[in-house]
Write a structure and sequence with these properties.
The chain is α+β, with helices and mostly antiparallel strands and about 280 residues long. It has three domains: about 1-50; about 55-155, no CATH class; about 170-280, no CATH class. Helices cover about 30% and strands about 30% of the residues. It has four helices and 13 strands. A five-stranded antiparallel β-sheet has the order 9-10-11-12-13. The N and C termini lie far apart (about 80 Å). This is PF06674 domain protein. It holds the Pfam family DUF1176.
């Protein structure tokens, strides 16, 4: 019996040692990969720093196309000009546009992407606008989709203070509405092309989605930018019944429509900073 007992103890000790060895090996591998990722990110960040430099550009206005196009220069002129880095940024932006943007075939270039020049000829006006945010930093607006009573723009941050210039398409939180058994259900989603227009005088984005042309039903969202240039949803209104009452144009606030509070979501716990930015912006 003693020998059997000793063997059992010895087996348990070996099992514990083996388990501890596995845990130690797992920790070592985890630390190695963590170190590898951190160092890799540092190298990537340094590489990005080497590939970009401070431009010193402090423009307060950009008007397409004159302020945002390539120009003929002698080969010895290697200096970067703001018009050229803007043209390069817009060219890169074409490849980042939402897939559900709809452009007439007359606006498409040989590469199958939207051409600003051809699109301007088709519209009879400039398809892109810039609103100043600070020196060398702008909010860009580009028409994405135009329907009979709704149209949608894409908005992006354009920062030409570094070369190459930085562009970032904004994503807006919104909700789909559905009435079931007397209750209105709201389902959240995010979109890059839901906003109808931007109001520079109030620095607000307006999304007015009409269910039909007379504007007696639909959804209304109002946004502001946080200090870190994140869209913050500050007002939600909707009217689901198209009954011919309380009609509004897209430029009006549908004050007689039901106002909804944004439902709490678990993901909001991860966005506390954005929430606080929005809170203080409203004060």
């Amino acid at each position: 019996m003693r020998q059997v007992f000793r063997k059992m103890i010895s087996y348990r000790l070996r099992s514990k040692r083996f388990l501890f060895s596995l845990i130690a090996l797992f920790c070592a591998i985890s630390l190695f990969f963590a170190f590898y990722l951190i160092e890799g990110n540092k190298i990537l960040f340094k590489q990005q720093e080497r590939n970009s430099f401070h431009s010193g550009f402090k423009r307060l206005s950009v008007v397409w196309p004159g302020d945002c196009e390539y120009s003929a220069r002698p080969p010895e002129d290697k200096e970067k000009h703001p018009e050229e880095i803007c043209a390069e940024a817009l060219d890169t932006l074409r490849k980042q546009l939402p897939k559900d943007c709809e452009y007439n075939e007359l606006a498409l270039g040989e590469d199958g992407l939207m051409s600003y020049r051809l699109y301007a000829d088709f519209l009879g006006r400039s398809p892109v606008q810039f609103f100043p945010l600070s020196e060398g930093k702008f909010l860009g607006e580009l028409l994405c989709l135009s329907a009979p009573y709704n149209h949608y723009n894409v908005y992006f941050i354009y920062d030409e203070r570094s070369v190459p210039a930085k562009t970032k398409i904004l994503t807006f939180p919104a909700f789909n509405f559905e009435e079931k058994n007397g209750f209105v259900h709201m389902e959240s989603f995010e979109s890059e092309r839901i906003v109808r227009f931007y109001k520079p005088e109030t620095k607000e984005f307006i999304a007015f989605i009409k269910y039909r042309g007379m504007g007696d039903c639909g959804e209304y969202f109002r946004y502001r930018l946080s200090e870190k240039n994140r869209p913050i949803l500050v007002e939600i209104r909707a009217k689901l019944e198209c009954d011919g009452k309380h009609s509004y144009s897209a430029e009006e606030i549908p004050v007689e429509w039901t106002r909804y509070a944004e439902p709490f979501r678990f993901s909001q716990l991860l966005k506390t900073q954005v929430w606080w930015e929005g809170f203080w912006n409203l004060r």
